[in-house]
Amino acid sequence: MNFSFILRTELHSGEGMFQKVGEIVRKLGEHCLVVIGKASVKKSGALEKLLISLKNIGIKSEVFEGIEENPSIETVQRGGEVLKEIRAKCANREGNKAFIIALGGGSVIDASKGIAIASSTDENLENYFGEEKVNFEIPPIVAIPTTSGTGSEVTRYAVITDLISLQKKVITSQKIYPRIAILDPLLCLSMPLEVTTNTGLDALSHAIEGYFSKKAHPFSDLLATQSIELISQNLLKVCKNGKDIVARGNMHYASYLAGIVISTASTGIIHAMGYSLTTKWGMPHGFANAILMPEVIKYYQNCCILPEDEWDKKIKTKLKKFNELLTKNLNLKGKDASKTLSHLIEKLNVYKNISKYDFNKADLPSFVEGVMANERLLSVATYRPNKEEVEEIYKKVFKDFIT
Known about the structure:
Blueprint: E1 10-13, H1 21-25, E2 31-35, H2 40-43, H3 46-56, E3 60-64, H4 73-91, E4 98-104, H5 106-118, E5 130-131, E6 141-145, E7 157-162, E8 167-172, E9 180-183, H6 193-212, H7 218-240, H8 245-265, H9 269-279, H10 285-303, H11 310-330, H12 337-347, H13 364-372, H14 375-378, H15 387-397
Helix pairs in contact: 4-5, 6-7, 6-8, 6-10, 7-8, 7-11, 9-10, 9-13, 10-11, 10-12, 10-15, 11-12, 13-15
């Protein structure tokens, strides 16, 4: 049993933990850049509470707002320039260090990682896309997620969008783990139903892909199965009643666990196939993953119907375990994993929303090429599909919308 596991992020979790943010981050410095999206944390009052908490303990703060749902290279670079200015001010005062607080969803946290990198170099951010190209220290990041989906508060990934090529590009580095994560389910109470659904399914896709990854190991499997169980127990509850604080807390924790899983075991072809649906067709990331999941699981099932080696046997056992975790909480005895997953997604009314998006069959070849070029994710996929198999999965997902 050989594997490596690294967890660099300090965790503070629980109801009301956000109220203690000032005391928690005091040790990091005396000046911070607060990174936010466009409106939600202002509307909820979370931003105001944060700024007051920082002021009360003598930490200066500046706000950088406007992070997009899919943060762009240009926005991240602008944020990096703002942070550079703050760091220059701090350099003139002994012992005064700058840090970042990311208050928002996964996009805000990913953007903050990019901003921290951009503030530490004169090179273009694009030079750091890929594996372990960040070889310098960056300002500490405090991640305070207001959604329960990406797990970015505990990952070594930053997903940034190239608006020219319309591609999602990834920075992967041990240097960009957030220093501190603060999980408070009270911050999620104002999350709209659609966001709750999409981010919850994003967390589920992380747990699933990490569980079936070639890089999975006993510890990642332990976390993945706990995450899957928590999501299957709580996602329908929280979508029915967004004020259910227990279910909110469980989803927040499940997302965190799934983040740890993908940071050590990675995602796979669900994410590889979902990126284009987001950048080209405008689908939310979790939504895109959700509609792909059942067909990808069915592909795995078909690959190991007649086990030929130990890997096939292992995946067949995992598929059975995965199905048991779902059916136990959804009361769906007798169905296979793909059908059970499809039933969950149907109960969340996801399929009803597919027709909202514009589909163009002419895009599929470029989508397939994008998947086949994503060696980072294909190399760890449970089974590596060829071009024809990827295209077939897309066609099955959109069979009622693309002729």
